[in-house]
Amino acid sequence: MAGPLTLALTRGRILKDCLPLLAAAGIVPEEDPGSSRKLVIGTSRPDVRLLVLRGSDVTVYVRHGAADAGVVGRDMLLEAGSEGLYEPLDLGIARCRLMTAGMAGCAPIGARVRVATKFVNVARRFYAAQGVQADIIKLYGAMELAPVLGLAERIVDIVDTGNTLRANGLEPLETIAEVSSRLVVNKAAMKLRPRLLGELVDGLAHAVACRDAQAAEAPR
């Protein structure tokens, strides 16, 4: 008999925003996944368990079938691709933008640019579409330092309020993509476990619809 459905969640803001939707769909963790040291967390449903991972790992676990489904930002899907995955639902959480940025008042780039980012594939495609040769410098954090210290002329990163950019003398420039978090499902798992995964998709879709309806009715 197949084991419980495994749902991989992205730690941090996405996890925080996702938990109320899961609860509305009848899936409540047995303990706080934000603070637990457990790698696998049971839920109020014996047929569903959770993993809490880095966003870049969620797509790997789901693509290779170690998790049946996952919740991950669209930025990670743009970077890693969605081969082997269905994207049945936009959860509309953790909204932000994937953008280029540079020093405030910086000059336009020429035919070649140095770009610091962890979104290597996204950055290369974006600049190639503009006919610009991008020399990519892969960083995993503190992107804002790269233009300040002359490591790169541009960065490609997630921007929410833009306050961190401004605090370091940078400004957002071009929007590459609007980002929110998606439910992704392993294609093979959808064929093997259609009932459980269908219930998950339907339950979360209903939770999203109720949340959006409540937001529309709330006084402004």
Largest β sheet strand count, sense and barrel closure: 6 strands, mixed
What structural category do the secondary elements indicate?
Answer: alpha/beta
Q: Helix count?
A: 8
Strand content: 25-35%
How many strand elements?
11
End-to-end separation: 51 Å
Task: Summarize the structure in words.
There is one protein chain. The protein has 220 residues and is of the alpha/beta class. The protein has two domains: 5-94 and 180-217, D-Maltodextrin-Binding Protein, domain 2 (3-Layer(aba) Sandwich), CATH 3.40.190; 96-178, Periplasmic binding protein-like II (D-Maltodextrin-Binding Protein, domain 2, 3-Layer(aba) Sandwich), CATH 3.40.190.10. The protein is built from eight helices and eleven strands. A six-stranded mixed beta sheet has the order 2-3-1-4-11-5, sandwiched between helices. Helix 4 links the parallel strand 7 (112-117) and strand 8. The termini are far apart. The model has no long low-confidence stretch (mean pLDDT 95).
Map the helices and strands.
Layout: E1 5-10, H1 13-24, E2 40-42, E3 48-53, H2 55-63, E4 69-73, H3 74-80, E5 85-90, E6 96-103, E7 112-117, H4 120-129, E8 133-138, H5 145-148, E9 154-159, H6 163-167, E10 170-179, E11 181-186, H7 187-192, H8 194-217
Parallel strand pairs: 1-3, 1-4, 7-8, 7-9
Antiparallel strand pairs: 2-3, 4-11, 5-11, 6-9, 6-10
Protein traits:
220 residues, alpha/beta, D-Maltodextrin-Binding Protein, domain 2, 2 domains
